[in-house]
Amino acid sequence: MSELIFDASDCIAGRLASLVAKEILKGNRVSIVNAEKAVILGNPEAIEQTWREKVERGHPYQGPFYPKQPERILRRIIRGMVPRKKPRGREALKRLRIFIGVPEGYEEREKIRPEKVVKKPHHKFIYLGELSLKLGGKKRW
């Protein structure tokens, strides 16, 4: 199948994740760049509190384990939209690649930014990069 490259800059994470989940289930290879610039809509303090409760839940060695890095947070959101316990879902997740920033070889390639996933300017939001830093993730971007 084809390879699609999505630019996550100022895109709503959940809406982008639903588009990506459909594409990988169809059999397309999907790469997402600028994962740290994706946004989650809502009150930033409430979003941070919700994710902090998830990260701190359970035992540090026995789980459940929640990610702190922005590309892994986005992967987890997409994973929730794919039937990952079935062979079709496992194969679909192998076709997904997520990057912080734009890696070499992707600068001059055409990137997709669907209009229906781009955030509107009047909503409260938090970037995945900011959320990652507040959860204790190391800054790599």
Helix content: 25-40%
CATH topology label: Ribosomal Protein L13p, Chain: A
Portion in beta strands: 5-15%
CATH superfamily annotation = Ribosomal protein L13
* Helix-strand topology string: EHEEHHHEEH
Integer count of domains: 1
Shape: globular
Q: Which runs of at least 5 residues are low in confidence (pLDDT < 50)?
A: none
Largest sheet, in brief, is:
3 strands, parallel
**Termini Cα gap:** 31 Å
Mean of residue pLDDT? Answer: 95
Q: Which sequence of strands runs across the widest sheet? A: 1-2-4
Can you count the helices?
5
* Name of the top-level CATH class: Alpha Beta
Structural class: alpha/beta
State Rg: 15 Å
Name the CATH architecture.
Answer: Alpha-Beta Complex
What's the count of strands? 5
Describe it for me?
This protein has 141 residues and is an alpha/beta fold. It has one domain (3-135): Ribosomal Protein L13p, Chain: A (Alpha-Beta Complex), CATH 3.90.1180. Helix content is 38%, strand content 13%. It is built from five helices and five strands. It has helices at 13-26, 44-56, 70-79, 87-94, 128-135, and strands at 3-7, 29-33, 39-41, 96-98, 125-127. A three-stranded parallel sheet has the order 1-2-4. Strands 3-5 form a two-stranded antiparallel ribbon. Helix 1 (13-26) packs across helix 3, helix 1 crosses helix 4 and helix 3 packs across helix 5. The chain starts with a strand and ends in a 6-residue tail after the last helix. The mean pLDDT is 95.
